[in-house]
Write a sequence for this structure.
């Protein structure tokens, strides 16, 4: 493929044409190995619909890179290419990482102090409201936003989503074996828009406030969903992974072992090791943040004075993502 040049920590994308019959989302395996000198990075690919497959890579080092694909589909196997990585663009400091055990910094060492907000279902609202949200964020000083992949059924979030996250079958039912590429494209475009504003996108992968059936997917469908989401989004430098909003309210259908497996799937498919956390509902139901796949402690608790206690208990940075809310909503925590 033609040599191209991109900036360090920007997104390189290779598009390939392949099989469209059957169900490529579950029947075709695709990955690429990106190499620079003696270093090789495995990156999963994904099906983007209409016979198009994509592989995305976020280079973290300047210089010449090459790649070669591996696939169960012969027409996707063995494709190779090269590209050149130049210096990072101004004001781009790379993904946020844990620094000095209890703090955060960008990959270039620039300190990062999280000052976040939450817009759970903003990508499922009318387009004019999404545009207004971005305009508002330009004037605010937030540098992180929690946002969900799935639509939400909750006060002030009762509308039907802009896109179904999965395609519908002939009977009009959601087919949880076929992600809807249009929905994911829109979602990732908004992730990029946040990145352009210097805002980290803390992606909420699951939540319990559902009337569409997303909470009722099987374990295998959940695992494929997490892998697909990771393959699509991991190359965006401003990604954080939040396994759930209020994971403990889902334990009846998603037992603890599944949550551990979700973390492991992300680790297997995110070569950049973006930050990973999980959010509790009940203040007494914290996940065991000591586990090695958790990068930092995500807490919902009104008693912010306990931060030092959590830091000492878990030995990791603490972000109280939901102590209380500002505003005039009717609920007790508003």
């Amino acid at each position: 493929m033609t040599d191209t040049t991109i900036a360090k920590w920007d997104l390189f994308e290779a598009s390939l044409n392949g099989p469209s019959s059957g169900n490529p989302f579950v029947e075709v395996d695709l990955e690429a190995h990106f190499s620079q000198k003696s270093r090789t990075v495995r990156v999963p690919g994904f099906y983007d619909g209409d016979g198009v497959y994509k592989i995305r890579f976020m280079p973290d080092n300047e210089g010449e890179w090459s790649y070669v694909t591996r696939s169960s589909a012969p027409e996707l196997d063995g494709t190779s290419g090269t590209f050149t990585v130049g210096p990072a663009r101004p004001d781009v400091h790379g993904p946020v990482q844990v620094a000095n055990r209890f703090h955060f910094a960008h990959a270039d060492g620039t300190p990062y102090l999280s000052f976040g907000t939450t817009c759970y279902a903003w990508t499922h609202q009318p387009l004019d409201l999404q545009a207004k949200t971005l305009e508002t964020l330009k004037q605010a000083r937030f540098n992180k936003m929690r946002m969900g992949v799935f639509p939400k059924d909750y006060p002030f979030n009762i509308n039907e989503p802009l896109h179904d996250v999965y395609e519908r079958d002939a009977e009009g039912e959601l087919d949880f074996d076929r992600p809807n590429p249009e929905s994911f494209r829109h979602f990732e475009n908004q992730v990029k828009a946040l990145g352009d504003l210097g805002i980290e996108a803390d992606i909420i992968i699951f939540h319990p406030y559902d009337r569409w059936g997303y909470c009722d997917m099987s374990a295998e469908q959940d695992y494929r969903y997490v892998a697909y989401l990771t393959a699509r989004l991991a190359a965006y430098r401003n990604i954080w992974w939040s396994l759930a909003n209020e994971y403990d309210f889902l334990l009846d259908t998603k037992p603890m072992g599944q949550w551990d497996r979700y973390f492991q799937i992300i680790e297997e498919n995110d070569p950049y090791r973006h930050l990973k956390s999980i959010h509790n509902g009940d203040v007494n139901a914290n996940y065991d943040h000591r586990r090695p796949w958790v990068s930092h402690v995500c807490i919902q608790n009104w008693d912010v004075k306990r931060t030092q206690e959590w830091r000492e208990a878990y030995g990791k940075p603490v972000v109280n993502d939901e102590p209380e809310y500002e505003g005039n909503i009717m609920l007790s925590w508003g």
